[in-house]
Amino acid sequence: MMQVPFSAEARALGLLEARSLYFGRGELPEALLDQSVLRSWERCRKAGLDPARLECGEPNVRAVSEARERNRTLISHAEPVLEHLFEQIRNSHSMVILADARGMVLQTYGDPDFLSQAEQVSLHPGASWHEFDRGTNAIGTALAERGAVNVFGSEHFYEGNAFLTCSASPIQDAQGRLMGVLDISSDYRAFQRHSLGLVKMSSRIIEKRLFESEFAHQGLLSFHARPDHVGSMCEALLAISPDGDIVGADQSALELLGLRREDLPRRHYSMLFDVPLGTLIDRARRDPSSLIAIAGRNGERFYARLRGNFASMPVSSPVGMEGRSERPVRPARVEAEPASQVRLTLHTLATGDERLQAAIDKGVRVLGRDIPILIQGESGAGKEMFAKAFHNSGPRAQGPFVALNCAAIPETLIESELFGYSGGAFTGARKEGAVGKIQQAHGGTLFLDEIGDMPLSLQARLLRVLQERCVTPLGTNKSIPVDITLVCATHRRLKEEVARGGFREDLYYRLNGLCINLPSLRERSDIDRLIDKLMREEAGPDRNVEVSHKVMQAFLSYRWPGNIRQLNNVIKVAIALLDDDEDVIETWHLPDDIFEEIGEAMPAMASAAPSRSLSPGLATGPVSAAAASGAASFGRLEEIERDMIQRTLEAENGNISAAARRLGISRNTLYRKLGRF
Q: Would you say the pTM of this structure is higher than 0.85?
C-alpha cells in the first residue's frame, strides 16, 4: 500500500465531508472547498450531470487525428516542453497531458503503470475532458476558469475520478485566445505540491514560444523591473513593428504596463517608454546581449533588450521625438527583391532526384519541432544550402541564421567564436568582449559545419549548452539563456568517429535527432535539371542561356569530385565568358581543367589551326607537318603561335570570344596567352 502523507489524507477526509454536505444536504461547503472547484460543482449540477456516473469509452481515433491537425501549431511548440516536463516527474506514478481548447486530449506522456490506470477512466488521447463531459476536473475547469487549478481526489465531480489528483494551466496564443491546457495527473496518494507550479511554468514556456513564433518578423522587446529576469521565463514581451507600433504583448507585459489587450491597436512605442526606439536599435546592433535601462511613462523603471527582426527599423529616432507620443517618421520603403531571386526553401531545392526528395520530406516533417538535424554528405554536396533552406522553411525563418565552420577556424579560436567572451578574457581579446555564435543565433538557427572536426574538449561544453539551453561566455560565470534550432553537418561518418574515440558518444546521440544523408552529385538523377536551375539563377531573368549537347554530355559523364560547389563555379565561369550576343555554352567557355580531367584536352596551338576560314589568304583546317616545319625555319614555335593569334584577332575585329572559337581554345586560355605575349 502506498504511504499517504498526513496532509493529503486529512484533505481527502475533509473532501468526503464536503461531498456529503453538497450532494447529501444541498449545502455549499465554502469553508472546505476552493472557490474555483465550488463554482465548477455548481456549473456541473446546473448542467444536470450525475456525480455517480462512471465515464469510460474507447478512444476516437478519427476525432483525435482531426484535433491534432487543427492544433498543429500548438503541438509543435508544446511537444518539446511536454517531453522535458515528463522527465522532471518520471517514476512518480504520474502523466503529462496536452489538451486542446475544447478539452480533448491530444498527447500524453506517463509512467506505464499509471497510464493503464488512467485508461480505466478514458484519460487518453481522443477523449474529451470538458466540464460538461467529465464534470469537475483540472483540464475542463482550467478552461472554464481561464486559470490554473488543482483538482484533488474527491473534488472531482464524478466519483469514479476520485482516485486522481490533477494540476492544469491554460495555454493562450499571442492574441490572448485559449489554445489548450497543460496538465499533470497522478494518483491522489502521490500528490505533489509543486505540480501546479510546474504546469504553470511549462505553459508559460509554451506561450512564450507561440508568441515569438507569431511575431518572428517583428522586433521583440524583452523587459522587466529586475535585470536578472530579462531572458528568463519572467520577462515581459512586446512585439514592435518597423514603424514602432505595438502589435503584440504577452500577459506579463500587459500587467507590468497596466494595459488591456484591447488597448494595443492604439499604442505606439513612444507612448510607453522614455528611451527612443532608435537608441534600443543602435544598442542591439552593437551588442545584442546588453541591457538598457528605460522608464515607463508612469515612472516605472525597467531593463530591456531588443531582439528579433529590427533590420528595417530606423537607425535612430527623429530629432525631437524623445518626449512626444506622436508617431515617428516612417523609414524609407525597402525595395523588394527581384522576382528572380527566389527565396531558398526546402521546396525550391527539389529538382526530381529521389534521394534528395526523401531528405527534403524528412526535413519538412520536423519543421518547427525542437529536433536537432545532422546532415551528412560529401564536401560540396549542398549541406549548408540544405541547412539554410530548412531554416527559411520553418517558423524561425525571420530569425538569424548563424553558420560556423568548425574545420576552418584554428582550434584555439573555436571556443571564443562559439561561446563568446568578456572583455580581457584572454590575451588579444577585444576590450568590449564579443558575442559568440550560439548567442547570435538566439531565436533562429545555428549551423555548425564540419562538426566532426570539433575538438573533444569543446564537445563537452557544447553538450552542456544543448542540455541546459544556456551559454556561458569565456571569462564570466554568467549563464545566458539561448533558444536555438541546431543544424550540424559533416562529411565524416560520426558513428565511426565515436567508435574510434574521436567524437563523444553522448553528443552524437544529442545531435542525431534526425540524420539526413545528401547524395553526391554523381549519384543524382537530376543533374540536367540542376544545371538548368543554376544557369537561370546565374544568368538572370533577362537572359536565356543554354548548354550545348556536347557540353551537357561531358557534364553528365564527369564525376564532379567537388559536387554542387564545383558545378556552380564552372557555370559561373562559363556564363562570365559568354559575349553579350552568345547564349549557348560551348567547350571553349569552360575551364580547361574540366576537360583535361574528362579526357578531352584542348587542342594544342602549334598542332591545330582554326577550324574554319579566318580570312582570305589565311589557312583553314589543321596545319600540315611540312608547313609547320617550314614555318619553324622562320622562327620559334611561340612566334608562330603569336602570329596566328594576332591574325585571327584581326580577322574577327578584336572579338575575343569569336577568335577563341576559331582557334579551338577557351576564352580564358586566349587571355592567358595574350598576357604572356
A: no
